[in-house]
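Supplementary Methods. Inverse-folding protocol.

Structures were first reduced to a discrete structure-token string of length 786. This string, shown here, constituted the complete conditioning input.
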């Protein structure tokens, strides 16, 4: 779908929503759909219905660690994209180290893959309407017109199509109904931010209904590019989803869904931090600054550029646009045979991303990478499900085919003649044989088939659960790298030289299982214990390779599958006629051959002599473990007041790495896993004041989240860490009983400065680049519900 077609679709949808409003103005207003049912007593905590076990259940009766956010929750805390979900869920980290619009790094209970390459999906699955999103570049998408988001923790292989060893995020969109409904939500905020989402749906005929939804998100950005005098880190994205639901018979439902989304803006810029002592940056062995001096802004990079004094300013020379196009087409068929329901889900996904990264975050061309990826994916899932009071089962077959191509050119030291380095003075032609343009192309194909199932049987107050999965997967990976070296001065390059080629295949077959038992001594108390195994198939390193052929061959070695055994015990309890809910879970995950990504130093020979560089290694850690405790307390102490407190503790570390290290590297044994803070917290307080005279309610909602100290790399590099920080959000909304809302919001109330990702490029470039979180934002909002 072209951008012009997407724009026309958005315009047509807006017109349809206006018509939908005109046609329904006299109709009774329909309430907004949420994940929390209306409680019989407003002093009670509402019932949250989830589908974690492939059927609708009260979350308090599901013996699984799952958290759910309704569409109203997402709107109240300002969730706009995949990355924002983590602020409401402890022990969940979702970070985009290369900025919004690129693939997120998802870590659940310390389990994630800290790899920015677009050919390797992490161990945590992302599902939209039961369809697994395979391409990492497609996993960052606009959040709009959703019924619910569920976060499942622990291996998910016996109920879901794709095997995952860490957990899963389930996004469920609002579906067509047999009543005319329409929704519009508009926000206008600082940094010239405009956010608009809307949907209209209803019956077309007696057995055919439709729904179409759109979203538009624009912001000039909270950073400033001093090089060009323009704003940076803005947003310009849009998406549309159209659904058609046909019920030819009372037992048969056919749902067709088509979604298109486009990100089209200058990529997020990084904060630049120099790490070399001024005056030594051009020496053969420059002096590296201490962590304190580097973050105090006292140091420079290899070309002499220092650290901007303002946290949200920098000088950036690249202005090409990031473009990320996602297309998702789905056909779902459900046939109800009575106790048994048959389901078929066929899906096609297309992702096309071009990301021109200003990798050095300075106005020169020291290092600049461009990431290009195109992916086509087809998936098919067939399921049969049986439901009764005592016995339930789900059995299914799954198939995935993915065709992924990467094109990743890289510039190195292109402006070396202007600034010098490695003991070489600035001068025309002085960087001949050193400055270079590297090209790498890869083609990866994945075919995966699986059979899975799970059954549970209730005997008295005890329920026994047993599930299994058999997965067979085959990956092929073709890689070709070539280079051009500067010859005859800056901007002139010699002939293209082949560097390395590789054509490899990896095949994995694995059986996993889950066993659980739960006990309900009363209707208000559930206790459970479970053991589950998980599996993530082997992968290939699609990153930039070392300039040393021997080390490049090591990087290209296939990475073995990772396996996990997850143990969990927990309790879900309700007290005082459901005015208080207290849940607790304790978990222990034993990982074998966990796939980790690390940047380790290496020494390579160049025309300037031996220099130290960073090599990006994707390999297996022999043994790792994560363990922790999660608590959730929700209370409705007085009429109109509800609060939730969710603290969590996590200990995630590498027990034995066993990785071949290059000269100068430190061992990883005993290191903490990346993006795994020991403590995390999410808390929400909401208070509703009835305004009968105004025929509505005034709602106050405060949300706070905390993340303790964390490393951004498995090497536990002290230069790329983030100390503990709080983020607070406030939302005040007047809700009219006839479907009109108006309010205001403040996000990051305390204006906290923090990083959500970082890369240490001291060797050889002399800098750290940080992806920074947004400062305080505020605005007004208006909503209509029909």
């Amino acid at each position: 779908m072209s951008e012009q077609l997407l724009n026309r679709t958005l315009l047509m949808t807006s017109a349809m929503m206006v018509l939908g409003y005109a046609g329904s103005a006299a109709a009774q207003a329909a309430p907004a759909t949420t994940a929390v049912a209306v409680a019989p007593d407003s002093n009670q905590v509402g019932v949250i219905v989830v589908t974690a076990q492939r059927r609708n259940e009260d979350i308090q009766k599901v013996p699984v660690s799952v958290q759910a956010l309704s569409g109203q929750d997402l709107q109240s805390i300002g969730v706009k994209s995949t990355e924002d979900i983590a602020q409401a869920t402890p022990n969940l980290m979702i970070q985009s180290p290369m900025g919004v619009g690129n693939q997120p790094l998802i870590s659940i209970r310390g389990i994630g893959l800290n790899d920015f390459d677009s050919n390797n999906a992490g161990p945590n699955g992302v599902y939209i309407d039961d369809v697994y999103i395979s391409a990492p570049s497609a996993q960052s998408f606009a959040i709009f017109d959703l019924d619910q988001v569920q976060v499942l923790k622990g291996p998910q292989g016996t109920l879901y199509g794709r095997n995952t060893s860490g957990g899963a995020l389930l996004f469920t969109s609002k579906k067509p109904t047999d009543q005319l409904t329409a929704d519009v939500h508009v926000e206008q905020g600082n940094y010239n931010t405009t956010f608009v989402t809307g949907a209209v749906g209803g019956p077309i005929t007696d057995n055919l209904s439709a729904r179409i939804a759109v979203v538009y998100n624009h912001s000039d950005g909270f950073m400033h590019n001093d090089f060009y005098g323009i704003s940076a880190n803005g947003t310009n994205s849009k998406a549309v989803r159209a659904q058609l639901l046909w019920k030819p018979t009372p037992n048969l439902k056919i749902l067709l869904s088509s979604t298109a989304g486009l990100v089209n803006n200058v990529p997020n810029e990084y904060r630049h931090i120099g790490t070399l002592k001024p005056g030594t940056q051009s020496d053969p062995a420059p002096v590296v600054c201490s962590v304190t001096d580097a973050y105090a802004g006292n140091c420079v990079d290899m070309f002499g550029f220092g650290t901007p004094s303002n946290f949200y300013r920098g000088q950036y020379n690249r202005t090409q646009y990031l473009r990320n196009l996602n297309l998702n087409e789905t056909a779902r068929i459900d046939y109800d045979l009575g106790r048994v329901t048959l389901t078929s889900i066929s899906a096609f996904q297309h992702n096309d991303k071009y990301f021109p990264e200003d990798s050095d975050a300075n106005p020169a061309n020291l290092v600049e990478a461009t990431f290009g990826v195109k992916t086509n994916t087809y998936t098919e899932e067939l399921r049969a499900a049986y439901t009764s009071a005592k016995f339930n089962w789900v059995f299914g077959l799954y198939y995935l085919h993915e065709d992924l191509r990467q094109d990743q050119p890289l510039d190195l030291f292109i402006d070396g003649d202007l600034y010098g380095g490695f003991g070489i003075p600035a001068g025309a032609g002085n960087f001949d044989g050193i400055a270079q343009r590297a090209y790498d192309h890869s083609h990866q194909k994945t075919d995966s088939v699986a059979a899975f199932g799970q059954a549970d049987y209730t005997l008295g107050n005890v329920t026994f659960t047993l599930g299994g999965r058999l997965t067979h997967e085959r990956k092929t990976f073709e890689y070709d790298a070539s280079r051009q070296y500067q010859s005859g001065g800056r901007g002139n390059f010699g002939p293209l030289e082949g560097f390395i080629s590789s054509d490899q295949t990896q095949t994995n077959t694995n059986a996993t299982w889950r066993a659980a038992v739960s006990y309900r001594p009363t209707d208000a108390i559930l206790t459970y214990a479970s053991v589950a195994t998980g599996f993530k198939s082997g992968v290939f390193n699609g990153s930039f390779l070392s300039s040393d052929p021997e080390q490049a061959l090591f990087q290209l070695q296939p990475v073995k599958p990772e396996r996990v055994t997850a143990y969990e015990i927990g309790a879900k309890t309700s007290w005082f006629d459901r005015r208080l809910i207290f849940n607790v879970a304790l978990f222990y995950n034993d990982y074998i051959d966990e796939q980790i990504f690390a940047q380790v130093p290496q020494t390579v020979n160049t025309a300037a002599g031996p220099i130290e560089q960073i090599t990006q290694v994707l390999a297996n850690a022999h043994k790792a473990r994560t363990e922790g405790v999660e608590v959730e307390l929700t209370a409705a102490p007085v009429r109109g007041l509800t609060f939730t407190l969710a603290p969590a503790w996590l200990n995630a570390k590498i027990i034995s790495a066993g990785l071949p290290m290059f000269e100068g590297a430190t061992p990883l044994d005993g290191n903490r896993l990346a993006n795994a803070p020991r403590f995390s917290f999410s808390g929400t307080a909401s208070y509703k004041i009835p305004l009968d005279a105004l025929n509505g309610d005034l709602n106050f909602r405060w949300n706070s989240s905390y993340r303790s100290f964390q490393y951004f790399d498995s090497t536990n590099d002290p230069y790329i860490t983030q100390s503990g920080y709080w983020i607070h959000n406030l939302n005040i909304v007047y809700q009219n009983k006839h479907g009109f809302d108006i309010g205001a919001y403040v996000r990051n109330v305390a204006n906290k400065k923090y990083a959500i990702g970082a890369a240490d490029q001291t060797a050889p470039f002399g800098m750290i680049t940080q992806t920074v979180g947004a400062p305080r934002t505020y605005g007004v909002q208006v909503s209509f519900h029909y």
